[in-house]
Write a structure and sequence with these properties.
With 64 residues, this protein is mainly alpha-helical. 58% of the residues lie in helices and 6% in strands. It contains five helices and two strands. The chain has a two-stranded antiparallel sheet with strand order 1-2.
């Protein structure tokens, strides 16, 4: 699944570690999400979307 996590994270000036700490996951999880190697749980997807002030559909391309 494609995502805009890297784009949104860098716009906010956050490192992978900073984002990970903010949403309660490991830096490796953020890295895997950004590289499309890991599909988040619904709970994590919603948490990330809310963190970025977006919808799940704006952060993740479920068709990609």
């Amino acid at each position: 699944m494609d995502s805009r996590i890297r784009e949104l994270r860098t716009e906010m000036g956050l490192s992978q570690q900073g984002l990970a700490e903010s949403v309660g996951v490991s830096r490796q999880t953020i890295n895997s999400l950004e590289k499309g190697r890991y599909d988040p749980s619904l709970k994590l997807a919603v948490h990330l979307a809310r963190f970025f002030g977006s919808t799940v559909e704006e952060v993740f391309d479920v068709d990609g």
